[in-house]
């Protein structure tokens, strides 16, 4: 199996090394793991692409490339340049430092990389490691992902739905709970949650030169999001799996909006 991996924390991020281990186990001794990751951290860029300027790419070692762009840029670089001789069988993005559950998914460059692969018709999985009291001070905060990552990916490959003929094909968002590997309670499939009464915001600071700057800051990550949702499953000690599509249509509202608006033009 030929696997392309990327992330949004950057080519030197510890989570990428965890993902290399996961990918190597999935690929097997006769497989290939190719890395095309951002040269610098790209957290929060979502599905951004560098449409108005070029992306410099450099080969750092065998099957290892750094690109000055977003995770989606890296996937395109991998597909159309680095691996132009043959597409990968699978694209993995992560393992992100911090969760990409609930509303975080909308900002996630990790998910953006997987989404770009799905738009190119490839099977793709985004993987993230929740940080919390159970692991933030641990010697290996990625232990849950390291211990359970390969088995989770293999389970998705063997039993997940991979609708390769769909216009917007499925990809998967996986989050590992903030626990040691031995304390993970299992795996649950659910929907994307929403943390109420918290959100991203900005915090103003004044520099020594008197200039005013705004730092983007996140809200609390331990807010329950309700049964059957990703962040809640993580807080309850489970690996969460959410099937996703790049199609942003609110299908549940189509009939009601059609009935309300009709086809009249005023």
From TrEMBL:
InterPro entries assigned: SurE (IPR030048), SurE-like_Pase/nucleotidase (IPR002828), SurE-like_sf (IPR036523)
E.C. no: 3.1.3.5
Cofactor(s) needed for function: a divalent metal cation
Localization per Swiss-Prot or TrEMBL: Cytoplasm
GO CC terms, sorted: cytoplasm
Residue ranges annotated for the Survival protein SurE-like phosphatase/nucleotidase domain, each copy included: 3-196
Recorded family membership: Belongs to the SurE nucleotidase family.
UniProt: a divalent metal cation binding residues: 8-9, 43, 96
Source species: Limimaricola hongkongensis DSM 17492
Entry function: Nucleotidase that shows phosphatase activity on nucleoside 5'-monophosphates.
UniProt KW keywords: Cytoplasm, Hydrolase, Metal-binding, Nucleotide-binding
A Pfam family recorded for this sequence: SurE
Substrates-to-products reaction catalysed: a ribonucleoside 5'-phosphate + H2O = a ribonucleoside + phosphate
Any GO molecular function: 5'-nucleotidase activity
Cofactor binding: number and manner: Binds 1 divalent metal cation per subunit.
SUPFAM superfamilies (UniProt xref): SurE-like (SSF64167)
Protein name as annotated: 5'-nucleotidase SurE
